[in-house]
Amino acid sequence: MKILQIVESLNKGAVENWLVRVFNESVNHRPNLEWTFFCILDSPGDLDEIVLQNGGKIIKSPISISNKVAFLRNLRKQVRADNYDVIHAHHDYLNSFYALAFWRSKALKISHIHNTDKHLPIGSRLLNKILIPQLKFFNNILYNKLIGISQDTIQEFKYSFTGKYDESILHYGIDLTKFRILHNRLDVLTRLDIPIKARVLIYIGRFTELKNPSFVVSILHELSKENDEYYCLFIGEGDELSAINQKVEEYNLQAKVRILPWVSDPEKYFQIADVFVFPRKLKPIEGFGMVMLEAQAAGINIIVSTGVSKETIVIDQIVTMMDSISDPKLWACEIMNLKNSTKINDAVNLIQNTQFNIQNSTSKLISFYETI
Predict the structure, then answer these.
(1) Does the structure show a pLDDT above 70 at 64?
(2) How does pLDDT run across 107-166, given as a tens digit for each residue?
(3) Mutual orientation of helices 14-29 and 290-297 as an angle, nearest 10°?
(4) Quick check: do 2-173+355-369 and 176-352 share a fold?
(5) Residue 22: strand, helix, or coil
(6) Taking residues 192-215, what's their average pLDDT?
(7) Which CATH architecture has domain 176-352?
C-alpha cells in the first residue's frame, strides 16, 4: 500500500513529531506500507534523516505555495506519477486547497484536522472570514474521510446529520518507553544552572500569542515575591519569544528563567520539573495538546487553562484547570498549594493501555487506511 502524507515540513512541531513516530512504529508492524512525505516547504527538516533512515521517502515541493496554479500542477503530477492508494493531508483548512490537485484520484483521500484555529496565511482578515466556511465545505465533499484529533476539532469541521463523531477521532499517542528511562535530576539541573533545591516550572510548546507563554513569567514574578526557590524553564520557539524576554527583563528575573529551543528529549526535562504550566487563551479550545500527555507521563503536577481540551486529561489527580488567565496571582497561589504534592510514580502504567499510547494510535490510523 502506497501512502502519501502531505505536511508543511518535517520539523519538530507536534503534528510532525506524532506522524513520524507513527511512521516509525508502522515500519515494525506493517512493513508493506510505503510512506512518502510531500513537504510544502522545500527547506531541510529536523526529522528528515529519521524518515529516510527508516525507509520513508521525502518529496520537497520545488514550487512555492504562493504560486498557487503551478503548485497544484506539480502536486497533481506527483500524485499521478506514483499512483498512491492513500492521500492523507494534515493542514486543516488548507487541505481543501490541496485536494484541488487530486480530487479525481481513486485513492482514499483523508483530511486530518489538527487545529481549530481559524487563521489562514493570507494577510487579510476579511478574506480569511470569507474563505473559512468555503474551505470547511470543500473539506467535507472532496475527501472520503475527515479525521479530527479531538471531539472539538471534528465537530468544528465535519458535517454530521447524526451528531456522532467518535469513529472520526484519532487522538495523538506518545512513546511511553522514553518515560520509563529515569534521568539524573542533578546532572540536568546542573547543566541548566538551576539549584538542586529549586522548584521548577516548565512550559513546552510554541511561543505564540494564543498559547500565552509570557503569562508564565508573570506567574513566576508573583511566586518570587513569596518564595525565592522558584525557577522557570521554557522549551520551544516562536514569535512570542521577544515578549517572554521583555517580561523577564521587566521583572528582573533573568537569573530565574532558562529558555531552550526545541529538544528531542522532552521527557528528560519533564522529569526534573515540578509543575507544567500552560496558560493558553480560553478560545478557541486547543485541538489536542500532545505536551499534556507527556507531562502526565512524567507524573508531575499540571496547571492549565480551560483553553486546553479536557480530552487530554488521563490522570485527573495531577491536573488543575483554571478558567481565567487575567490574574497571575491566582495561578501562583494554586502552584504554591501544590508544593507538598508528590509525583505519580506509576503514571506511565496508567497511560499504557489507553488510546494515548503510540502503539494504539498507530493501529487505529492503519485501520483507517485498510478500509480501502
Answers:
(1) yes
(2) 999 999 998 777 787 778 888 889 989 999 999 999 999 999 998 888 878 776 444 445
(3) 70
(4) yes
(5) helix
(6) 97
(7) 3-Layer(aba) Sandwich (3.40)
Q: Count other C-beta atoms under 10 Å from residue 175's C-beta.
A: 17
Cα 312 from Cα 289, distance rounded (Å): 7
Sign of CA dihedral 294, 11, 244, 311: negative
What is 2-173+355-369's CATH topology?
Rossmann fold (3.40.50)
Q: What is the pTM of this model?
A: 0.86
Query: Strands, E, within the chain: which ranges?
Result: 2-7, 34-39, 57-60, 86-89, 108-113, 145-148, 199-204, 230-235, 257-260, 275-278, 301-305, 319-322
- Are 172 and 290 within 8 A, CB to CB? yes
Phi, psi values for residue 210, rounded to 5°: -65, -40
Residues 61, 94, 144, 109, Cα dihedral to 10°: 10
Around Cβ 85, how many Cβ atoms within 10 Å?
Answer: 17
Computed on alpha carbons and rounded to an integer, the radius of gyration of the chain in Å comes to 21
| Domain range list for the chain | 2-173+355-369, 176-352
Rounded Cα distance between 86 and 104, Å, is 13
Burial (CB < 10 A; 0-12, 13-18, 19+), residue 199, is: buried
Contacts of 362 (CB under 8 A, 6+ apart): 22, 25, 26, 29, 173
C-alpha 117: how far from chain center: 13
Looking at residue 166, its pLDDT comes to 55
